[in-house]
Amino acid sequence: MSHTPYGYRIINGKAVVDEQAAKQIKTLFQSYLSGDSLTTAAKKADIKAFHAGISRMLQNKRYLGDEYYPAIIDPDIFAAAEAERIRRAEKLGRIREPKAKKEIAYPTSFRISEGKEHFDDPFQQAEYAYSMIEMEVKEYGGQ
pLDDT over 90 for what percent of the chain? Predict the structure, then answer.
């Protein structure tokens, strides 16, 4: 099992809500939704963590509750915080969309005609031989 999320304690093999930390988490979500930055919301909630850690806390679905962890945050508040996080990221240009991949057409058949010239210089002979190659590229790589 991985790290126990902030706001929970493990007692007798079961996750239970740490009431003090749960209040801090609720304050964090409320402060963030009221317009505070991540660090300001964390300071108001009296949580000592870095920017990225606070962001991960706002995205942690375990706070909604599952078969092991009891719920701390209401699903509506969690969804609103996620929508706000995405809105702020888009506003700041921090949403990266993958670039469209360029389709590369590979040659699927080659033909070379009989060479009629001969050169003493091997580099000129190789250049001449390569110039005789004809390539044909078929759609979808077929012949």
Answer: 59
- Give tens-digit pLDDT for 98-112: 788 888 877 677 677
Mark residue 115 as left, alpha or beta (left: phi above 0; alpha: psi -120 to 50; beta: remaining).
beta
Helix (H) or strand (E) holding 122: helix 122-131
User: Out of 3.90.1750.20, 3.30.1360.70, 3.90.870.10, 3.90.1150.10, which CATH number does the structure's domain 8-91 have?
Assistant: 3.90.1750.20
| Residue 54 burial by Cβ neighbours in a 10 Å radius (0-12, 13-18, 19+) | buried
Cα separation of 17 and 4, whole Å?
11
